[in-house]
Automatic annotation (TrEMBL):
Membrane topology, as annotated: Multi-pass membrane protein
Domain annotation Mechanosensitive ion channel transmembrane helices 2/3: ranges: 586-627
Record GO cellular component, one term: plasma membrane
Family: Belongs to the MscS (TC 1.A.23) family.
Domain Mechanosensitive ion channel MscS C-terminal: 702-785
Sequence ranges assigned to domain Mechanosensitive ion channel MscS in this UniProt record: 629-694
Annotated protein name in UniProt: Mechanosensitive ion channel protein
Amino acid sequence: MIMKPLPILLFIFSILFGLPLVTHTSVAAPVAAVEDSQPDVATALKNYQKQLDTIKQQVSKANTDSQLSKLFDATQMLGADLGKLITELHPVQEKLQAQLDVLGPEPAPGSMAETAAVVKQRNALNSSKKQMDDAIKRSQAIKASTADLGQQINDLRRVAFKTQLALNTGSILSSDFWSPKTYMQTEELDQFSAFIQQLQQTWDNSWQESWRYGTLGLLMLAATIWSLGRYIVERFLAWLSIRYLPDGRLRRSFMALATAMITLFAAKLALNLIVITFSRAQPFTPQVQDFSNGFMQLGLFCALIAGLGRAYLSLSRPSWRLPQMDDAIASGMRYFPPLIAVLALAFGTVELINNVIGAGLGTTVLGNGLVSALMALLLLVIPVRAHYIRRQLELSGTHIEKRSTLNGVAHILILVSAVVILFSLLIGYVAFARFLAYQLIWIALVLMAFYFLVIFTTDLCAAIFSSQTTSGRALKKTLNFKDRHLEQLMIIFTAIAKCSLLLLMIVALINGSFGTTTPNSLIEKIITILSGEGLKRLNIVPSNLLNAVICLMIGIYILRVTKRWLSHELLPKTISDIGIRASLVTLFSNVGYVLIILITLAALGIQWNNLAWIVSALSVGIGFGLQEIVKNFISGLILLTERPVKVGDMIGIGGVEGDVRRINVRATEIQLSDRSTMIVPNSQLISQNVRNATMGNAQGVVTIALTFPTDIDPELVRNILLSAYRAYDSILETPAPYVRFSQLGPEGIILSVTGYVASPRMVGSTKSDLLFSILKSLREQRVNISSPKEVVFMKQRAKNLVDEEEEHSS
């Protein structure tokens, strides 16, 4: 039987490229599967669009931050579902396209016609492909709309928060603050009673006869995990650290971090068991579920407060305490972390209930005021208590650790914040007081966690790359490393870890929040107040000016810290040449300042098309007054990159010689032999002839020329000079010293002896010492040196003899 050309080609391509052989049966299966899935995809997209429309309607009716927060979470879940759907549809789309590629393009008019089966297959694939493309495009459009809605919800929350901060709800000393309206209380009491009934029903269901023993067992297990289990795990980790971790700070930092993490994980596990205990009998109602989710987050937040406080004070192991703190002060502060955690848990629970039942403004303000007042009083007591304990110890004559500057700054900030919170409550800004109280706690937690993580990562890197530990010895043996290589790796990995933790800390401080607040909202409010019409010519507004100042300050601080790290930690362990290190640090500094200026100008909002007149003025100034400055700046960059002259070199220019101490942007500092400093513009080091005495490991040449009478024994003098050079320690053996017969004249015999030293800087002192030694040896051998008077006399006598000969000849 003769096969038709198209099936033959398809058969060959399927063998060569591994493609499935397209027949009527092989194409019909995926096409049918796609056609069957089309109704499901269409139904899913309709449901997603309906959910999006429902969220939009609820957003227009929402009037509390908790409602907006739940709607934002709903948009995030909807976006994730749409992304998952798009991911599932892409393989189907690619499969259909592959089937169409196997069939190839439609035949041109006039060529051999396709069979009816192939035409039917192509049409079916094209139809399915078009439907799939439309479904993906629609899914992407709904996903984009969902993302836009989420951004709008965030904007609404931000605006609502700014309004809430600026709202004066009355002083906590006023009667209106303590007596909300009656009809609001009645409505809220009904809602609260309904919620309590739901909680009561959940409780009763869990204690039914069939669930009673399981509930009791799970609650006892949760209590055991939180108390005894946490204690056992901490003791076990302490034993492991003593047994397996190397001696040093790693054990202490590991246990401090482990204490905080164990407290957090124990709370997480105990709370999960409690939720399972009361939800297994009957699922939670929506209100109870919302309360359960919020209480879980609140419990973890409070456990983190308690865990970090226990790790910071380290009362069970005072010798393992990381910060420098006296035991008496630590014992006196022991109750504050759990007290703060308990207060946050109690009043956070009240706020959760208010959010769940949709409490009115009066009740919410009352709760926020009480929370803020108690938190402020507690924060006010902490530094006062610490100061009191220190004072008592000083009066008793007990030696105490000196308070660090950072510790003193922290105490002052806590005092000031507590006073500001109380003052805000007195004048009626309850929302602002509540925001400041919780944000102070959040910032303290983030900074404390950052402190523990930085110390732990630093100690961990030091232990891993130490030549005294097992890991360090293994790296040396496996990779043939030296001690300096391990030290370089330790510095690099420590820097990477610190930078990563610093970025995480910044993200946590910016994005972290508690309740309805965000840490950057106050700054945004200040920026909003300061924003005006701006300087239209340069497009500068006060908010951009504030951002530019912040960028400039942070940039300069980061640049200085990085320069200090490069010059004192990394480069000394990596590059031995001082000049190269100084050049790299200076070049990095110059590039860093240029980048900081560019970032600052970008944050300032300057439009470069409005700076044409400035550029024109600068071009004229560069052509005249700034020409030398620009030339020296470019010359400085050339010196730093090509390095014909670097820090530490001994150079000579313009008849002076000295050591290069610093290469600045405009000029180079050269220290002369008398310790004075000569400032040389960088352009002169590029354009003039410069002698670099130490470039390329140059050696110093010590040459001494002496004049002797003509009646000496040259060989004896030669041996004396060579012996003096060879006996001197600084004279190198290679190249060997040598003596040359420089001149024989009327004034006598001139012999010069030459030797080499390791550096040109040693020439002066070596020459002086050798002259002392040579003169002593010559006197011991009774060899005289022609004195200046004898030389002059011999010159004069020779001249007279010449004159007499000329007269006689004439």
